[in-house]
Design a protein that fits this description.
Layout: E1 2-6, H1 13-24, E2 27-30, H2 31-45, H3 52-61, E3 64-67, E4 70-73, E5 76-77, H4 85-95, H5 98-112, E6 117-121, H6 124-128, E7 134-139, H7 142-155, H8 162-178, E8 191-194, H9 200-215
Parallel strand pairs: 1-6, 1-7, 2-6, 7-8
Antiparallel strand pairs: 3-4, 4-5
Bound molecules: 2'-deoxycytidine-5'-monophosphate.
The site of 2'-deoxycytidine-5'-monophosphate (DC) has 14 residues, from helix 2 and helix 4.
């Protein structure tokens, strides 16, 4: 069974998706980590992110593994490094690269083949798994999302003004919802869940209930 969870950054997707997968005993696929890993790899190798062909070649030649909570590139654990600000900011070039998108969607389908998976991203319910049995699209108020991001960064020792985070978030949302392929949008058959006024546990409880009801 495939459960897709899409939506903008800060809507609480990642943690909710991970916990849902644990509760259901499903594998978890963090597709954002794949875009991040390609970005990191290009940055390390000095491959210009603005050169679509070079980035595609790099993506095809690197060995990308998602093992539990860890992300490995050519056997090297990059789980922490791919969360850096540089990677977050520059991942947009990789996300806008149609050839790389097509390749990563192929890897995502291979990963899910014959398995029970909770997969999280922007285009999982629309492009990667249009026939998924259960689809969610998580949303939240922009301010609430920025506040969550601010708290997350503070936890890593980075103090960033809310206004700055709000501005970056708006730009990312625009790019994510306007690109040609893999546009961030809810699939017609997705359940839209507003997490603004829900705790993480409440979100996970709700998602789990919907999946279990659907399977019953
Ligand atoms: O969810 P995230 O912040 O880890 O995503 C990292 C980048 O990858 C961000 O630029 C959005 C992009 N992305 C995408 O285009 N498609 C996905 N399925 C997942 C992430």
């Amino acid at each position: 069974m495939i459960v897709t969870i899409d939506g903008p950054a800060g809507a609480g997707k990642s943690t909710a998706a991970r916990r849902l997968a644990e509760r259901l005993g499903f594998l978890f696929l963090d597709t954002g980590a794949m875009y991040r890993a390609v970005t990191w790899h290009c940055q390390q190798r000095g491959i210009p992110l603005t050169d679509p062909n070079a980035v595609e070649q790099a993506a095809r030649s690197m060995r990308l593994e998602l093992v539990g909570h860890r992300v490995l590139v050519d056997g090297h654990d990059v789980s922490a490094e791919i969360r850096s600000r540089e990677v977050t900011q520059e991942s947009r070039y990789v996300a806008a690269n149609n050839a790389v998108r097509a390749f990563l969607v192929e890897l995502q389908r291979q990963f899910a083949e014959g398995r029970d998976v909770v997969t999280e991203g922007r285009d999982q319910g629309t492009v990667a798994f249009p026939h998924a049995e259960c689809k969610f699209f998580l949303v939240a108020d922009p301010r609430e999302r920025a506040l969550r991001r601010q708290r997350e960064l503070a936890g890593k020792g980075q103090q960033i003004a809310l206004e700055e985070l709000l501005e970056q978030q708006t730009q990312r949302d625009e790019r994510d919802s306007q690109r040609e392929f893999g546009t961030m949008r809810a699939a017609a058959d997705a359940r839209v869940v507003d997490t603004s006024r829900l705790t993480l546990d409440e979100v996970v409880d709700h998602l789990e209930q919907v999946v279990r009801d659907g399977r019953a």
